[in-house]
Specification:
- By secondary structure, this protein is of the alpha+beta class.
- Helices cover 38% and strands 11% of the residues.
- The protein is built from four helices and four strands.
- The strands form two sheets. The chain has a two-stranded antiparallel ribbon. Strands 3-4 form a two-stranded antiparallel ribbon.
- The radius of gyration is 15 Å and the shape is elongated.
Amino acid sequence: MVTESPRISDEQLVELKENLLGTCQTLAAGIEAVGLEDFPIEHVEDRLLDDPGGGAVELCPACEWWFHSHDLNEAETGRCVCDQCLEDENAEG
């Protein structure tokens, strides 16, 4: 018998996204702050790309701050980064 792991509710997901957006905290710290430690971190990462809470949330790989995915731009290097990092990223490319 296959047992499904518990699913993060939309309310929990929204709370996590609100906690992460505009910060440079680690995903692990965000998860702990909203009490989602019982969920595998990979599952939480996947759920951050779901729509509840105003859209997907991602980490800018250049500055490591959290943004809505639609606020990230593809640089010449192929990475999606925030507006503040875009010029530097393109200069490196």
